[in-house]
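Page 42, continued from yesterday. The earlier attempt failed because a stray header line got pasted into the input along with the sequence. Redoing it now with the clean sequence only.
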Amino acid sequence: MHLPYNVALPILFYQGQPVITLAMMDKAHRRPEDTAGRNFRAHQNKLIEGKDDFVRNSYEAKELGITAPNGLILLTKPAT
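This time it went through. Structure tokens are written below.
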């Protein structure tokens, strides 16, 4: 995956698809925390849950090796 900055991110797969979290997206683009989340919420009506994004609880996230302090995590397919 090409990143705009030299940032190391873990490689995650969900149901065989490569995914990233919104927090990982902020880190990759060196944006303030919740920038990707704010933009996601603003454009959520244009996305199809289960196809473009996956919302998971903290128990499911833990299985992927992700901690979710607020109890929810959003996985999204990276744009290619």
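Notes: The mean pLDDT is 78.
Reminder to self: strip header lines before submitting.
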